[in-house]
Amino acid sequence: MAKLSLILCFIFITFSVLNLCNAKKKVGIYELKNGDLSINVTNYGATILSVLVPDKQGNVADVVLGFENFGDYLHDDVYFGAIAGRVANRVGGAKFTLDGKTYKLFANDGKNTLHGGHRGFSDVIWTVSEYVKDGSLPHIVLNYNSFDGEEGFPGDLNVSVTYALTDKDKLSVTMKAKALNKPTPVNLAQHTYWNLNGHNSGDILSHEIQIFASNITPVDANLIPTGKLTPVKGTPYDFLEPQTVGSRINELKSGYDINYALDEPSDKIKKVVVVHDSKSGRTMELWANKPGVQFYSGNMLKAEKGKDGAVYGPHDGLALETQGFPDSVNHPNFPSQIVTPEKPYEHFMLYRFSTS
Ligand SMILES: *[C@@H]1O[C@H](CO)[C@@H](O)[C@H](O)[C@H]1NC(C)=O
Ligand SMILES: *[C@@H]1O[C@H](CO)[C@@H](O)[C@H](O)[C@H]1NC(C)=O
Q1: According to the UniProt entry, where is the signal peptide (predicted)?
Q2: Among this protein's residues, is 276 annotated catalytic?
Q3: 341 lines ligand 2 (CB under 6 A)
Q4: What pLDDT, in 10s, does the model give residues 3-32?
């Protein structure tokens, strides 16, 4: 109870401060429940705060990383649970050219733009347009209207994210965006960090992971794609067969932070990843309709003040962000991320939980 009132207190402070900027927008926590599966979401950054899932004994635990204090979501650089956009991942040189015009973006990652810039979609207040807590289809719809020129991007863009517990073992995320007047790049990503043994159970190095991708898009020293696709075969990036995250991580500089080019066609809904934790018996399948998935092994987590007094360090959670290939705007050989008024954006993700 003490924790809840602390959270509410932080929300109240946040709410009061943000209220000065926009009297109509309130920050709240919204719970969705379907059987033993339940999640909490906030409209700040359309962020997933918690996901409770049973283990093989039926004991429920929170399997996503998050902050103890709500206020920490306002200035975090780890993007716990948030929706990253307008263009998730990196845009090299913080600029791109579209229809002969060069657009300069806010550079917030050295010379590059990361996750939409200084104040991306992960740091704005979304409007809750539908909310059904339980029953046959618990869901919440969040909307954000991004304006022409926001963080340097062209055109007005209406965005919606729907979280739904479509079954007692399924969480779906549907991200849609509609360009109202100009073509613009759009790449939204759900940035939850998972630890299937429980968010406060240490590192994820013994999680087994399988990624249905034979190639990655390698990056330079600033994590910008070179534009090539290279095979995973014979490298520590090969997860075509299930392997533990830790099996070959020491062969890499700081761990995994790379986009996989999925083998199945781009726009088809396909199985992307399977993660299994043998300690809890929890398995998570991720399905999606995008060409890539960023596998990030939480390399840069550093004494983050987590929920229930947990302190998260490197590799205490992993993120699996389905997406368009990073920096697509600067690589004509990558699948296009350009959205036009005639061709809206739709990104569907489905997480399926089971135990064994
Ligand atoms: C989710 O939110 C509800 C309502 O605010 C709260 O009672 C519950 O403790 C929260 N659950 C978690 C795991 O934080
Ligand atoms: C964009 O969003 C606003 C506010 O939610 C809504 O009134 C408007 O109809 C939307 N426009 C389109 C073209 O969807």
Answers
A1: 1-23
A2: no
A3: no
A4: 443 444 344 444 444 444 444 579 999 999
What is the three-class DSSP state of 270? strand
Please name the residues in contact with 276: beta carbons below 8 A apart, sequence gap of 6 or more.
Answer: 196, 207, 208, 209, 242, 282, 283, 284, 356
Domain range annotation of the chain: 29-355
pLDDT at residue number 22: 47
Task: Catalytic residue, from 68, 151, 304, 321: name it.
Answer: 321
> How many angstroms separate the CA atoms of 37 and 109, rounded?
36
Find out whether 148 and 155 touch, Cβ atoms under 8 Å: yes
The beta strand positions in 85-211, using DSSP E, are: 90-91, 95-98, 101-104, 113-114, 127-132, 139-146, 157-167, 170-179, 184-185, 189-190, 193-194, 208-211
| CA nearest ligand 1 atom 5, residue | 29
Q: Which of 115, 139, 191, 315 is catalytic?
A: 191
Strand partners, 127: 143
Q: Is 62 in the pocket of ligand 1 (CB under 6 A)?
A: yes
Q: What is the mean pLDDT of residues 114-125?
A: 97
Do the bridges between strand 243-244 and strand 101-104 make them parallel or antiparallel, or are there none, so unpaired? Answer: unpaired
In this predicted structure, the answer to whether residue 311 has a pLDDT above a threshold of 80 is yes
Residue 38 pLDDT > 60: yes
Q: Is 345 annotated as a binding residue?
A: no
331 is catalytic: no
| Fold observed for domain 29-355 | Beta-galactosidase; Chain A, domain 5 (2.70.98)
- Going by alpha carbons, the residue nearest to atom 4 of ligand 1 is 31
Phi–psi pair at 129, nearest 5 degrees: -105, -20
86 appears as a binding residue in the annotation: no
